[in-house]
Amino acid sequence: MAERSTAAVDVADNSGDEPLAAETAQATADGVDTQNGQAADGTMPEKDGDRRDAAPAAAPTAAPELHSGHKLARRYRLEECVTRLDGFSSWRAMDEKLRRAVGVHLLPADHPRARSVLAAARSSALLGDPRFVQVLDAVEENDLVYVVHEWLPDATELTAVLAVGPMEPHEAYQLVSQVSQAMAAAHREGLAHLRLTPSAILRTSTGQYRIRGLAVNAALRGITSETPQRADTEAIGALLYASLTQRWPYENDAYGLTGLPKGVGLIAPDQVRAGVHRGLGELAMRALANDGATASRQEPACTTPEELSKAVAAMPRIRPPEPTFTAPPEYQHTTYQQGSYGRPQGPGMPTAQVLTVVPPPPPLQSRTGRVLKWGVAALLIAALGLGSWQLADTLLNRNNQGSTSGSQTTHEKADDAPEKKEPTLLSIKGAQEYYPDGVAQDAGNVGNTFDGDATTYWRTKSFRDGPAMAQDYKAGVGIVYDLGSEQAVNGASIALKYAGNHTTVTLYAANSMSSSTPVGSMKKIATSTTSDSTLKATTDAPVTTRYVVVWITAMPQAGSDTYSGAGFKQAITDVKFTG
């Protein structure tokens, strides 16, 4: 199918854009990075003219002045504005009819790109490919145009994955394979993306990759291209390059990744980082050949997602790393069931340790043997009788002793009992907010929870539903603490600001400070529920860990106070861990 210029769209999901705080009011990952002063998608501005053509600038149209709690179509309740840019805004919302979280893009009906946004959203919805974040509704009413799309609370943005470090070869292989196949299917239907950046790729808890942004985000920004297939292929190559090297393949820094040194051009991934998989590195260069890259073995450049997908399929399959098993504690096996030892192992069965079994001696069947057996039996009977007589004599002597001596013996035994150790207070070396859904609560005040000052605190936002948090909307909120080294943690004491209803907190052992690891994969230490302003969570079996997550899944209802509206919320003033 011939290429056509297609306006693509980034269906903004929860894992991409930062919330607009009143005190920061900065553009998010779908807009402009005000800290770096460059396009937040990480593309090189000087090369945009070579790869795609931006639509002519139009007169700015103010974004609709809406607020949290506003309802669209008497169904979609706006919760939080995550983007406000160039005359449109993006929101996290609640579908009150189906009781699920959704995302919404809003712009005035007279916006110069309103018609193209509606057309792009409807084209994306007709594709119906589950590898893309789905458009659920596209409506024009009451002088507004809005696009409703999926919200994936269990997904992690590729930006957060790469912040931890480069991917293993198998993960990078899965990324480029799934994304190239999905984009090849979209281009066969005449749809392009044009905004394939790390913030547009989501990894679900099952390891599958979902693409957000097909046919909406580029339309919102007026981005078009004369060669959309080549632009999307180059973007996939940049994603693969970043996953292998943890570097952005352009001179500008973007998405928390450092760009390449200025003036050296695009260099091969294995020259950036040692140990890069050779086949994947060459594949990234072939996809980026539009930017002047040359593959080391001179394979032809990949200029369409279809060609890139076929090149991935032609590679030798990269298998996942072998899982690491923890050996179980040693134990002595004394079962002598017939046939349970010396059994040959079948195909695929784990290799068992071969034990040498000494057979019991044959029974004594001769006359001498019978005499010996009766003799042994007589000796046993005599020994039992003597033992019984000595036991009875001892008991009679004890009964004759006074109660004073008996009481003294009891107290002496009690004094010999081991004393119970008092819990030890563990020091906290650092902390940061834990938000696996990409939406922080009060990240700048995390340090107030262990500063020793009861008047300072970290506080959540106010939620409309509670006390238990809606799993399909936001599973929980929390903080991850660094104890400085591996410690045996058996509980925590947490001072809270709000009492009433109930607060539920669970402690988890984490392997890092990152928010990309879901709590479902962590080891639970303890959980507790309280209706007071103090919560204690303890366990009888301490868990050894350096990082501890305090995860709140239920909060009481509280009234309005400083910079916080009424609703279900909680604040932590002090945290102490014991071991």
Description:
With about 575 residues, this protein is of the alpha+beta class. The protein folds into 3 domains: about 30-150, Phosphorylase Kinase, domain 1, CATH 3.30.200.20; about 155-315, Transferase(Phosphotransferase) domain 1 (Transferase(Phosphotransferase), domain 1); about 425-579, Sandwich (Jelly Rolls), CATH 2.60.120.260. Helix content is about 25%, strand content about 25%. It is built from 11 helices and 25 strands. Strands 16, 17, 18, 19, 20, 21, 22 and 25 form an 8-stranded antiparallel β-sheet that branches. Strands 4-5-6-7-9-8 form a 6-stranded antiparallel β-sheet, covered by helices on one side. β5 and β6 form a beta hairpin. α4 packs antiparallel against α6 and α6 (about 230-245) runs antiparallel to α8 (about 280-285). The longest helix has about 35 residues, at about 365-400. The model is unreliable at about 1-60, about 330-360 and about 400-415 (pLDDT under 50).
Question: Main sheet?
Answer: 8 strands, antiparallel
- Strand-residue proportion: 15-25%
Total tally of structural domains: 3
Q: Which range best describes the helical content: under 10%, 10-25%, 25-40%, 40-55%, 55-70% or over 70%? A: 10-25%
Q: What overall form do the CA principal axes indicate?
A: extended
Please identify which CATH superfamily of the largest domain we are dealing with.
Answer: Transferase(Phosphotransferase) domain 1
Question: What is the CATH-assigned architecture of the largest domain?
Answer: Orthogonal Bundle
Low-confidence stretches: 1-58, 331-358, 402-415
Q: Taking Cα atoms only, what radius of gyration do you get, to the nearest Å?
A: 33 Å
The number of distinct helices, counting runs of at least 4 residues, comes to 11
Top CATH class of the largest domain: Mainly Alpha
